[in-house]
């Protein structure tokens, strides 16, 4: 409990640091390809500390997340190519064929859905590369989903992140419930 409180204070202090945006950009880039640390841990305190800069912070996070998704995609592509002999022995495996078929048919929407949820985007990027999804389709879906996600997160943190509004406020739950219903419906439609 004390460690969590200290981490929160440390992040709040770093959010006011002159190089906070540089660290956020690095975290966002790495999150989209290899890092296990989410940039939201620094994004939220930065927007809380600088609520008027939410759009600039959101744009920086989105741009660096998109840039980081490109190496993630090629990591997936390279892993698939390197393991081609192993995968070719699995060609009769319905799971592998099913995944490839899903990406062929719904790849754009899978990337959109993955980019709009708090799922680590590196999994979506690597899976897209491994499924050999067309790069420009991947890049356009990544751009659309990451910009939308970062803007929505920035706007929500600007509006609700300063502690004046409680999570029990019904004004917050309606948009969250609507998004969850949409996401579950889209997921059900895709699967």
Largest sheet: none
Radius of gyration: 18 Å
Number of strands: 0
Give the H and E element order.
HHHHHHHHH
What's the mean pLDDT score? Answer: 80
Broad structural category: mainly alpha
Distinct helical segment count: 9
What are the SSEs and their pairings?
Elements: H1 2-15, H2 20-31, H3 40-49, H4 54-82, H5 84-88, H6 94-116, H7 121-130, H8 135-160, H9 170-190
Describe the overall structure:
With 191 residues, this protein is mostly helical. The chain has one domain. 79% of the residues lie in helices and 0% in strands. The chain has nine helices and no strands. The longest helix is centred in the middle third of the chain and has 29 residues, at 54-82. It starts with a helix and ends with a helix.
Give a brief outline of the structure:
This protein has helices spanning 2-15, 20-31, 40-49, 54-82, 84-88, 94-116, 121-130, 135-160, 170-190. It has 191 residues and is mainly α.
State the main characteristics.
single chain, 191 residues, mainly alpha, 9 helices, 79% helix, globular
């Amino acid at each position: 409990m004390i460690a969590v409180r200290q981490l929160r204070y440390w992040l709040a202090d770093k959010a006011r640091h002159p190089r906070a945006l540089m660290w956020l950009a690095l975290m966002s880039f790495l999150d989209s390809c290899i890092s296990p640390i989410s940039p939201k841990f620094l994004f939220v305190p930065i927007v809380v500390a600088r609520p008027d800069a939410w759009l600039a912070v959101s744009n920086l996070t989105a741009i660096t997340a998109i840039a980081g998704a490109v190496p993630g995609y090629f990591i997936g592509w390279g892993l698939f190519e390197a393991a081609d002999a192993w995968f070719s022995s699995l060609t009769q495996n319905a799971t592998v064929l099913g995944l490839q078929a899903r990406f062929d048919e719904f790849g754009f929407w899978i990337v959109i859905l993955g980019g709009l949820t708090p799922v680590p985007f590196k999994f979506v990027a690597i899976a897209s590369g491994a499924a050999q999804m067309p790069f420009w389709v991947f890049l356009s879906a990544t751009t659309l989903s990451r910009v939308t996600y970062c803007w929505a997160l920035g706007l929500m943190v600007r509006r609700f992140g300063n502690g004046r509004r409680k999570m029990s406020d019904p004004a917050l739950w309606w948009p969250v419930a609507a998004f969850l219903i949409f996401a579950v419906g889209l997921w059900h439609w895709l699967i």
